[in-house]
Amino acid sequence: MTAWRWPFVALLLVCAVTCAQAQGRPGRISLMVGGIEKQIYLPVILASRLGYFEAQGVDVEVLTEPSGVNAEDQLLAGAVQGVIGFYDHTIDLQAKGKLVRSVVQFSRIPGEVVLVAARHGSVIRTPADLKERPVGVTGLGSSTGFLVKYLATTGGLKTSDVHPLAVGAGDSFIDAMRAGRIHAGMTTEPTASRLLTTGEAQVLVDLRIVEGTRQALGGLYPAACLYMREDWISTHRSQVRALAAALVRALQYLQTHDAQEIASLVPESFFAGNRAMYVAALDRGKEMFTTDGRMPPGGPETVLQVMRVADRHVGQRKIDLGRTYTEDFTRPPP
């Protein structure tokens, strides 16, 4: 049976509990999600709630961390077998000499949005106006941090001209904006709609839609995915295939059911007291998801272009994009 942990727990506690459980439950696969309440990661929730993992014969435990960069640390430490996070981490890690691959691609765009606090809306109108201002991201070294830095350069700034501040997601992001600790920030749904609905924020750059992503980043930008260590993939191919089958089935469910039905499967806490808002955001955002779990053509090249600008570890290092993802487990059988 799939195990759920609520609420968020400290990194070291999660690691200790996960390792202990792994010893007591041989064959269990632990997946760490970089913020489980985010709509961009819905496929893993659906696969669990609809029994798709069990149907494939895999015992899956779903854990959560508020930031993708923390989830990445868990994977490298061997505390979990996979991460539900952003594809760009596979490029960042390869630049650091560590090989991980996306095995199921959830989305073809980030599903993120840069918001500006309403009180600063009259002076922050373009990415160039982010200069010397505190900009909220989920964590330092996170995907939101990379994207914020890149977007600043499209406005003529240097990456050093912006000041990312790690504020997490959900309530912590909202609290930071309300308190004035950040003037702008990148977040996802349903956090974005919570601030937009109350008029506390306005959109600066919208990466929740395909058109906005193409304009801002130059093409499709594959983001949410399941990524795993290359060595684990090579020695556990049957388990990886089972995970992929369950998650692709969940992606197909997303495309064939309406937002109301999908919302009925997620925990009530995800709605933050406003189910209608959550459903509306999901209905608008369904275009972000892939239908087959495969990498969108040209997507890795777009991500690498962004990472060369935004990530000092990548820079001009030689990156083998063919080793950042695989379609072996999502490609239809011959």
UniProtKB/TrEMBL annotation:
Signal peptide (residue range): 1-22
Main location: periplasm
Keyword Phosphoprotein (UniProt): no
InterPro entries xrefs: SsuA/THI5 (IPR015168)
Domain SsuA/THI5-like, residue spans: 42-257
Subcellular localization(s) per the UniProt record: Periplasm
Superkingdom as given in the UniProt entry: Bacteria
Biological-process GO terms, alphabetical: alkanesulfonate transmembrane transport
Assigned GO CC terms: periplasmic space
Family assignment from sequence similarity: Belongs to the bacterial solute-binding protein SsuA/TauA family.
Official protein name in the record: ABC transporter substrate-binding protein
